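P.,

For your records, the input lines for the assembly:
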Amino acid sequence: METPQPPSPPAAARDAAARRQWVLESLEEDQLVAAKTRRLGRARLGRGAQVLMWALRVYVLVMVAIVIYTIFHAR
Amino acid sequence: MDSKPPSPVPAAGVASRSVARGEDGITHEDLDRAQDRLQVALARRSRGGWARLRLLWLLIGPGILVMLGENDAPSMLSYAATGARFGLGFFLPFVVLTFVMAVVVQEMTVRLGAATHRGHAELIFERFGPFWGWFSMVDLFIGNFLTLITEFIGIRAGLGFFGIPPAWAVLGALAVVWLLVGTHRYWTWERLTLALAVCNLVFVPLALLTHPAWSEVGRALLTWRPLPPRGAETVLILLADIGATVTPWMLFFQQSAIVDKGLTPRDIGAGRWDTRLGAVLAALAALGMIVVTTPLYRHGISAGHFRAAEFAQALIPYLGHAGAALFALGIFEAGLVACVTISTASAYAFGEVTRMPHSLNRPLREGWHFYAVLCLGAAAAAGIVLIPGIPLEYVVLIVNVIAVLAMPPALLFLYLLVNDRELMGDRVNPRADNLLATLVVLVLVAAGVLYGLSVVAPGVL
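Structure tokens returned:
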């Protein structure tokens, strides 16, 4: 496995260009806060996945109703 | 940390504080994260056993925190009720199985976070849209808020054993949460919270104090026997023990923490070890708790509706006063650590969906929305605990059940995301992991249906 050389901190940290260079060498491009403004786009969901998502949502709603019933029953 | 690499010049941090994002587009968050990554790169460059240990030390954190964080006050009380009601038997290996399920699920968040550098809430919103995103957020925020209330109940009850008034107990816990996030540095926050979290292991020496029958422990772990009696109470304990280990906030927390820590695909192996180590430690504490309260079962003491302080009082004959005090402190600690981690999970998710700064590396001025959600969420839950006459026992009873019921949809999102080749590339789930994830969903749905039956048609069980 290759051994990466750690980036050296900038000699003059107040220098914006040096600072940017040092951060870019230390982090992956996608790790930068600025990179996170990039939208990823929607996933293409198959019919099966959509049916499953709805089925599990209905399951949760039904079960929550049962929990609420339990609470009132217990009181 | 044993060796100090050259510091990335404090002036850089000072300079960045003057503006949210410098002229160079670099934020304070980027700088702090780069500093952490520099340490990792230096450790990776070194050779030898110590260097590898140091590298692991630098990379662990989110996995241990999420597992010990989930050993929270209601979870520990569920384990206490398990030991007091059923003794040593089926539930010992069952609890181990729930931690195996947790490892399977949480490992996927490690890969997802390291590969995409995005939080779980952010990915759900971006890939499935706001309709499904808000469903998921409602589940998360309601579940987290109810759980936070139970953490403060645990804190109040734990410190109540020492005669500390509820208001002081709750305010003290809030102060600790605020002090931890007040460091405005992920690394410091993580290490301090880890130091608190390992105190969860206090239940292991407490278990030894009860002089357990090791042959029974071994037999239970190997044979899953004796089996518990059929009935609604068994189903409730079953669900509570699952909900004590596998819950939605864990998915959101670990993935966001991994992103905040700055882990990369190269760190996935260490992330896995972090998660496994966390699971082993948490399982030891959980099993310890079951063993601790087993004497109550043996002596026929009904502990069905015991709260933390009552458990501690009832255990005095078996643990002594010092042991009972440690038990109460353990419940307090469990609630406190979970307050920190669950509040942080909510704040991460809020920041991710609103696209506001959401990092523990942000100074207060830049990340005030994030810190406000974190601190005000905890404060609101604490306030509810202090309202006289509120029927809090219902919250304690249902919080783990709700966690189990909300988990299957959360797992479906995780399953879809971790199999999304556009996001994950070659790091998509292997077939075996998909099979395991499907099994976990089936177990959770089956547990939920069993619970539904126990309520609607108790005669069926």
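Two observations worth noting. Residues 120-160 of chain B form the longest helix (41 residues). Chain B touches chain A through 64 residues (CB under 8 Å).

Regards
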